[in-house]
Amino acid sequence: MKYVLAQLKQYKKDTVLTMGFTTLEVIMEVLLPFITAMIIDEGLEKSDMPAIFRLGILMLVMAAVSLFAGAMAGKFAASASSGLACNLRESIYIRIQDFSFSNIDRFSTAGLVTRMTTDVTNVQNAFQMVIRIAVRAPLMLVSSMLMCFWINRKLSLVFLVAMCFLALILAGIMKKTSPVFKETFDRYDDLNASVQENVTAIRVVKAYVREGYENRKFRAAAENLYRLFVKAESLIAVNNPAMMLVVYGCITAVSWFGAHFIVSGSMTTGDITSLFSYITSVMMSLMMLSMIFVMVTMSSASIRRISDVFEEEPELYSPKQPVMEVADGSVDFDRVSFAYKHGSGEAALEDIDLHIASGETIGIIGGTGCGKSSLVNLISRLYDATEGSVKVGGTDVRDYDMEVLREEVAVVLQKNVLFSGTILDNLRWGKEDASLEECRAVCEAACASEFIDRLPEGYDTWIERGGSNVSGGQKQRLCIARALLKQPKILILDDSTSAVDTATDARIRRAFQIYIPGTTKIIIAQRISSVQDADRILVLEGGRINGFDTHENLLETNEIYRDIYESQTKGGGDFDQAG
């Protein structure tokens, strides 16, 4: 709860004003039945018209004040609850930005989306109800009870019995429903995951005619959620009959005993009239409190899920006194081992000892799952080495400010991502203030200008989310251009020219020598032709270094490299097949 309330920030004033206006509204409403009793006893029964007129005017003023206070309380409650939800979503989003890949893997993308949407909405609704009804209901309840005891102490004991009975019912409901709601909101993650996976992979779904299977999978998740909600709501449904039993029981008891008190002369007609008004107020307060209990029960599960995000400690963080400058593009792996799950015994990389000089062009080649991407991910510190150290510019990557390090390491990943916006917007991810001329230059180097210039709107062409309106090769070239715009000290291409033809691939590599001659270039590729002109080529097998030398020397000394070369040049098979 402390994480949620900390997000009130600038809306604390609105919260206090809501409670203040609600208090004023309750005071006016509590006094109105008392004035009604005075009109009956002192005006009607004594035929005192001036008193009736005077007290009637007072009632109108109090009603107007109550109406104004209620309207203002509603306004400030809406502002405070919406503001809390806005701040909460923003804080969760900012927190997620600090997460490492392993942190995000523990929650899943769908789970984080559910927390920022459904769970925050539950908290928003509960908070709005709490600052209004949770203030109004107890105040109304206590004030009405005090007035009832002031009118007739013995008759008011009926309310105490009713409240104890209702409290037991509500406690039982909360105990039963709380774990059900927790499981319900966890199932929302499965539902969102099903939708996200289907929409993201819609082309594959349609290509393999799997719409029926996906529909059945979604239906199963939706029906599971339905069953849990029915179970929870069935338990909560007990609340209304119990409430009605208490209300009608109190009315019956007060009518029966009140009649005896009037006959005996210990109560007036005005007293019993006002007492019925207070009965209604007490019962309505109890009903509102029961609604709050239900809402709090639902939102408590959401609060715990949101708190999990805030309590999750990012595994990667900058040191207290970080190095703020990367000296050059040299890269050193000193006896590095790495596993995605610490202690699992499944190492992606083992005993990597590798030294790359600044400005070198290094090719990396190897079979599927040999650790190529894992190796380069350690350079920009997307993960930390399990053993050993990775140095960039002679300094351990863990000693750098992470933003400073990543500004100097440009990575074009296997899964290229473009964002909704123009081509220029996407290019300027590499450099926010880049001019059109700078963007043209990097696109020329990445061989992207040739298709951009053919577009009717050129660099102002709109890119759909994920780059769905451009081809795979065009997307790769735009991502390379975006990386070049950073003018990094290290450029990593993780199989990022696989969708372009060999001639274009060769032109891009030649352009690197002209456009970024001093940059260290690390090229992961499946094609020998993409790396054979590199200064040195690293051959990986099973997470270990199998060879590290020039193209010519590897052909003579490295069997794996020679087999790959012969299989590709002689057309004997694809990368992962023997020649």
Automatic annotation (TrEMBL):
It is found in: Cell membrane. It is a multi-pass membrane protein. Keywords: ATP-binding, Cell membrane, Membrane, Nucleotide-binding, Transmembrane, Transmembrane helix, Transport. Its main location: membrane. The chain crosses the membrane at residues 21-40, 52-73, 157-174, 245-263, 275-296. Signal peptide: none annotated. InterPro entries: AAA+_ATPase, ABC1_TM_dom, ABC1_TM_sf, ABC_transporter-like_ATP-bd, ABC_transporter-like_CS, P-loop_NTPase, Type_1_exporter. The keyword Transmembrane applies. One of its GO terms (molecular function) is ATP binding. Residues 331-567 form the ABC transporter domain. GO terms for cellular component: plasma membrane. Pfam families: ABC_membrane, ABC_tran. The keyword Repeat does not apply. Residues 16-298 form the ABC transmembrane type-1 domain. This is ABC transporter ATP-binding protein/permease.
